[in-house]
């Protein structure tokens, strides 16, 4: 039962943070390079642009759900299990969602890296 | 990719790892979260100083993460910043005194290889600069339409 509870919280982290990642990435690509924007217009303009982006706010909401799931999961299990387990699944879902929704060029190098990181993260949970 | 951009990726990694560990230190000092009192228990956790410092670290992580996403693909930034999980393992071992088995050390090695591999490749898909594909209209078409108009 405890293990089921823990894995439900981990699934919640994965779903919420993958959706959040895609929304945030999409929002940031619409705004463009933050370093250049800050150099041109200043930090306040950067912050204003970010908070004016609807996808950013939606992504932030998803991240908040993921964060409170993380707090819950951390109180139920070891950080060295919870963090890697949620992360390894997030790598798979986020890479797939990035290819589908963001049309990113997820080439062989990135799949190999995602695979290495994912297997490594699974091993961390041993 | 210049030195400053690698520095931003490094900050993403450092703040994510330390933030999670500080949260764990704080949550260890509290009673386990109960399903029946989920919301009050979670808000009570915000009164713990370690949790508060952890949250500040995660805010710093978030700022550097957004900066990285503004000039690099999500499928690049995620693996490139995976060293945070290596950091968590090291801090779990040396600060929280959790057991780190030979499997976990193998995991640390694989993650490090993955990070090294992806950061040698391109950071951004070229046609993807403003993420317009989500609403189904690539940037190039908009520019062409603008030129036609």
Short characterization:
The complex is a heterodimer of chains A (126) and B (149). With 126 residues, chain A is mainly α.
Describe this structure in words.
The complex is a heterodimer of chains A (126) and B (149). By secondary structure, chain A is mainly α. Chain A has helices at 2-31, 34-41, 43-51, 54-76, 79-101, 108-124. The longest helix of chain A is centred in the first third of the chain and has 30 residues, at 2-31. Chain A starts with a helix and ends with a helix. The mean pLDDT of chain A is 86. Chain B is mainly α. Helix content of chain B is 69%, strand content 0%. Chain B is built from seven helices and no strands. Chain B has helices spanning 3-28, 38-45, 49-71, 74-80, 83-94, 102-118, 139-148. The radius of gyration of chain B is 20 Å and the shape is globular. The chains are: A mainly alpha (126), B mainly alpha (149). Chains A and B meet through helix 1, helix 2, helix 4, helix 5 and helix 6 of A and helix 1, helix 2, helix 3, helix 4 and helix 5 of B.
Oligomer: heterodimer
**What integer is the average pLDDT of chain A?**
86
Radius of gyration of chain B: 20 Å
How many beta strands in the DSSP annotation of chain B?
0
* DSSP helix fraction of chain A: over 70%
Q: Rg of chain A from C-alpha positions?
A: 17 Å
Structural class of chain A: mainly alpha
What is the N-to-C succession of helices and strands of chain B? Answer: HHHHHHH
**Spans of chain A of 5+ residues with little confidence (pLDDT < 50)?**
none
**Poorly predicted residue ranges of chain B:** 128-149
Major sheet attributes of chain B:
none
Terminal CA distance of chain A reads: 20 Å
Most extensive protein-chain contact, per-chain counts: A-B, 62 and 63 residues
């Amino acid at each position: 039962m405890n293990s089921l509870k823990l894995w439900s919280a981990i699934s919640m982290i994965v779903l919420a943070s993958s959706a959040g990642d895609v929304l945030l990435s999409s929002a940031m690509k619409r705004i463009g390079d933050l370093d250049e924007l800050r150099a041109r217009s200043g930090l306040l303009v950067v912050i204003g642009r970010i908070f004016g982006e609807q996808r950013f706010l939606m992504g932030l909401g998803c991240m908040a759900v993921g964060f409170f799931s993380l707090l819950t999961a951390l109180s139920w299990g070891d950080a060295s299990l919870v963090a890697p387990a949620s992360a390894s699944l997030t790598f798979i879902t986020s890479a797939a969602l990035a290819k589908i929704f963001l049309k990113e060029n997820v080439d062989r190098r990135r799949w190999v890296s995602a695979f290495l990181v994912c297997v490594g993260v699974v091993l961390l949970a041993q | 990719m210049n030195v400053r951009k690698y520095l931003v990726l490094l900050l993403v990694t450092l703040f994510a790892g330390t933030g999670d560990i500080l949260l764990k230190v704080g949550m260890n000092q509290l009673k386990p979260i109960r399903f029946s009192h989920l919301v009050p228990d979670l808000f009570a956790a915000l009164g713990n100083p370690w949790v508060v410092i952890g949250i500040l670290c995660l805010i710093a992580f978030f700022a550097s993460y957004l900066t990285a996403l503004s000039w690099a693909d999500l499928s690049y930034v995620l693996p490139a910043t995976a060293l945070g999980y290596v950091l968590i393992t090291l801090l779990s071992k040396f600060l929280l005194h959790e057991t780190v088995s030979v499997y976990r050390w193998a995991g640390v090695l694989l993650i490090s290889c993955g990070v090294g591999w992806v950061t040698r490749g391109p950071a951004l898909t070229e046609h993807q600069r403003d993420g317009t594909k989500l609403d189904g209209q690539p940037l190039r078409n908009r520019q062409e339409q603008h030129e036609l108009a």
